UniProtKB/TrEMBL annotation:
<dbReference type="GO" id="GO:0008081">
    <property type="term" value="F:phosphoric diester hydrolase activity"/>
</dbReference>
<dbReference type="GO" id="GO:0006629">
    <property type="term" value="P:lipid metabolic process"/>
</dbReference>
<comment type="similarity">
    <text>Belongs to the AIM6 family.</text>
</comment>
<dbReference type="InterPro" id="IPR051236">
    <property type="entry name" value="HAT_RTT109-like"/>
</dbReference>
<protein>
    <submittedName>
        <fullName>Uncharacterized protein</fullName>
    </submittedName>
</protein>
<keyword id="KW-0472">Membrane</keyword>
<keyword id="KW-1133">Transmembrane helix</keyword>
<keyword id="KW-0812">Transmembrane</keyword>
<dbReference type="InterPro" id="IPR017946">
    <property type="entry name" value="PLC-like_Pdiesterase_TIM-brl"/>
</dbReference>
<dbReference type="InterPro" id="IPR039559">
    <property type="entry name" value="AIM6_PI-PLC-like_dom"/>
</dbReference>
<feature type="transmembrane region" description="Helical">
    <location>
        <begin position="12"/>
        <end position="30"/>
    </location>
</feature>
């Protein structure tokens, strides 16, 4: 434990994140009106009775929000988790066998890799959320990243930017630390077993390659606008389907939505839900704020399952 703690604190990302979470929590407790001074003193005294093994994400309420371009955030993935955002996206480039993370090739750096930004921190969080002790010896399932809703998986969208047939094997290999610990949602023997992390391939992800995986622990982001094109789209291959809101719907959020635009949203959502698939629209307007919120309201009313957000703070408070 001590060794693990030291390792964590030496990592810059963790340092920032732990600080933000713990300071935020302590401040909240101390400033709650009417709270007894002796409780505040207990907090200050660092009592071991106030913590438990999985308190790391204590009090964070998970929300169906997708963190678009997550790797642009000050602290990728951890910022999203701290706001209760359940879905994050990494653009990956397979170059010389290494997966680099960035929006375009010019943005890549040697140390921003899929391993360093996503896999390693995830393994560290999940090891914390799944302590091995006398209380968990018989546990058969794994806790997710959210302490108050441990059965909710984190959705990790992997947007393959380089050739799909070359990138998929690298992604599968990179996931091994999560796989071997039992943290990946897996379809095997005709059974979908949800675990702490559900990995979805998008971008250049090859559909045939995903379909051929057995057991399958990387899934496929199906085309929400074209689900009728294949009978293979089912939750065991594609738990989620997505489409470009700007291209297929286009309502700016200003003025009223047309009947045809609403009908298209409803058709897409129904095409997904009738197959047991969740619906996501990306490229929704980000500005002005009123327009963005009108679009989010419309999509939620029409049954969309994920809010796509660049501004996570705004989305998490929506
Ligand atoms: C809180 O507990 C940790 C671990 O037991 C210890 O290292 C640290 O010094 C304590 N902090 C305070 C303010 O008592
Ligand atoms: C890939 O390998 C080639 C040949 O060894 C090297 O010239 C190139 O810089 C490498 N590219 C990256 C991104 O590491
Ligand atoms: C990442 O790499 C750059 C240059 O390659 C270096 O300046 C920086 O300190 C590295 N950052 C971390 C967190 O290792
Ligand atoms: C784990 O299983 C063993 C054997 O059935 C049982 O004796 C023990 O009490 C269980 N432990 C817990 C924490 O459930
Ligand atoms: C990927 O592999 C599949 C099956 O081997 C092949 O049909 C497809 O054309 C390949 N795609 C690319 C972009 O090379
Ligand atoms: C799946 O089925 C095979 C053979 O039918 C069996 O050997 C294997 O243990 C099963 N795996 C799981 C996870 O149930
Ligand atoms: C898909 O098929 C269903 C059933 O035939 C139909 O109602 C729906 O409009 C189709 N979706 C699209 C996007 O064309």
């Amino acid at each position: 434990m001590v060794h693990q703690f030291v390792t964590l604190m030496s990592n810059m990302f963790w340092h920032v994140f732990l600080f933000v979470v713990s300071v935020g929590w302590i401040k909240q407790v101390i400033t709650t009106p009417g709270i007894n001074q002796s409780i505040a003193a207990l907090v200050d005294s660092n009592s071991s009775l106030l913590t438990w093994p999985t308190h790391f994400t204590q009090g964070i309420v998970p929300k169906p929000i997708h963190s678009h371009n997550d790797y642009w955030r000050e602290v990728p993935m951890l910022t999203a988790i701290s706001l209760g955002v359940v879905s994050v996206e990494a653009d990956v480039w397979q170059l010389n066998g290494t997966l680099f993370v960035g929006h375009e090739e010019a943005a890549l750096t040697p140390n921003r890799t899929f391993h360093s930004l996503y896999i390693d921190p995830l393994v560290q969080i999940l090891d914390m959320m799944n302590p091995k002790d006398e209380f968990t010896v018989n546990a058969t399932s794994r806790n997710g990243v959210f302490d108050i809703a441990s059965s909710i998986p984190l959705q990790l969208l992997v947007d393959m930017k380089t050739d799909g047939n070359a990138t998929l094997p690298a992604v599968l290999q990179a996931l091994e630390p999560l796989r071997s610990a039992g943290y990946l949602t897996t379809f095997s023997n005709n059974t979908l077993t949800t675990s702490a992390v559900t990995v979805i391939g998008t971008g250049n992800t090859p559909f045939d390659g995903i379909l051929a995986l057995s057991p399958r622990d990387v899934f496929f982001d199906a085309p929400l606008d074209n689900l009728n094109s294949s009978t293979s789209f089912s939750p065991s291959v594609s738990p989620i389907a997505s489409t470009d809101y700007g291209a297929f719907i286009g309502w700016s959020g200003i003025g009223g939505i047309s009947d045809a635009q609403r009908a298209t949203i409803l058709t897409f959502v129904n095409d997904a839900h009738s197959r047991g698939i969740k619906a996501r629209f990306w490229d929704t307007p980000g500005w002005p704020v009123r327009a963005r919120e009108s679009v989010w309201n419309e999509l939620l009313n029409d049954g969309a399952d994920w809010l796509n957000a660049d501004d996570l703070v705004a989305a998490s408070q929506f």
